[in-house]
Amino acid sequence: MLNSKSPVPLYHQLADILTERIRSGEYSPGQMIPSEISLAKQYGIGRPTVRQAMDTLVRKGLIHRRRGAGTFVKRPEAKVDLFSLAGTSQAFLTQGIRPGRKMISPLCLKTVEGDPENPFNGHRAFFLSRLTLAQDRPILVEDIFLDAELFLGLDKIDLRDKSLSRVVMDHYYLKPENGVQTFKVEALSGTRAKLLGLTRKDPVLVVKREINFPDAPGAVYSVLFCRTDTFAFSQTIPGEVS
Amino acid sequence: MLNSKSPVPLYHQLADILTERIRSGEYSPGQMIPSEISLAKQYGIGRPTVRQAMDTLVRKGLIHRRRGAGTFVKRPEAKVDLFSLAGTSQAFLTQGIRPGRKMISPLCLKTVEGDPENPFNGHRAFFLSRLTLAQDRPILVEDIFLDAELFLGLDKIDLRDKSLSRVVMDHYYLKPENGVQTFKVEALSGTRAKLLGLTRKDPVLVVKREINFPDAPGAVYSVLFCRTDTFAFSQTIPGEVS
DNA sequence: CAGTGGTCTAGACCACTAT
DNA sequence: TAGTGGTCTAGACCACTGA
Q: Under CATH, to which class is A10-73 assigned?
């Protein structure tokens, strides 16, 4: 089941296996999952390695541990965690909602100008803009800027039906280190208002997000324009893991 | 230096020591901190224990590791992380901004009614409302609800000049496990508009936050009404730790 | 090359839970 | 009491960095 020759660490492989079993329902909410010792024996690995795998699931909020009792699958949260670093489509998929997507501006290289808040201001960057719908209603416009040098060749990749964060991970082997986002309430411009089915001057939630990668701070910058009247945007904030 | 008889785990003690050295500037940004092996020898503990301590610092964003090179103190982030679980005053303090506070409704027991989104709806709960100012400008009104049974005796505690999250930690030994918050853009009621120096119907950012404690989900619920025109609200999102 | 962090093992003792 | 998670040790091998 586990491949110790793989470059993927054992604890990561095990974490993936357990995650899949939870997502598929094999381990259902409230149920106890096999103990650390039994998993260690079953897979022929050490208990610390099992713990390391479970640590990641605890941080993701999939399980919780009760000393003396066991480890249990958490009941899934009721809301859409939109503001995580994993990417917007991932946020919807974890809820069983399939978001609709409409490209507004296809990926292109462009020079960013007149936007001092944009870390790419004055430089060339990849740019795309897209609309997200839920249950056929427009809820979100995303402008995304990506570092032109770091993501060299991005315009050669077919992005249709692919998660942008997956492309970044699989093609460039880049995993977000952390991010900073700021929240504002702003009035919409005319063109964006039309896309979201609103009138100009309707206020929306504007989220500006900067994502940092190892040795490449701010390599992705995105601006989200969110309708909040038909859909509640939410996020889960992890606590500290013991 | 470390006390192995203490009920506080060794890795936690070491994490506190290292955190303090970073906060005090003894280890300054960019500087390499002692290697895991040297710390293990110095404190007479195992290397995995040192790693466990450093893991927490990585998750807090205080340090980052570079394989083959060492572990380094990160440069502090530039913005105010308002939407963390640590509490609002903590968010300002880490930036050197001393927020002004004005109590609107002092702590009292009240029965929550007519608010289906409030987890305390139909029950009695502690309630308080306060205004936060930055640089003498109103920026934030907070309504806070706390579980009446869990925080029994809270009304006997002098809350002036104390962080609410500190009181919860120090008096009730409760550490937030995680939280869920939802974001909306809403128009203000007349009374709150006045407090924030706005006119009625001015849209503000409304954040509803539910904080979960071990064995006490949703024991704290708060609603934040935020002006976003004079002050940008931001947060840092941690990535996954390897 | 020596030193670093990344991973992993095979144990150990403890506090706690359920029965 | 048996089984669980929480902590900790003493080692090991590897990939990687920097001199």
A: mainly alpha
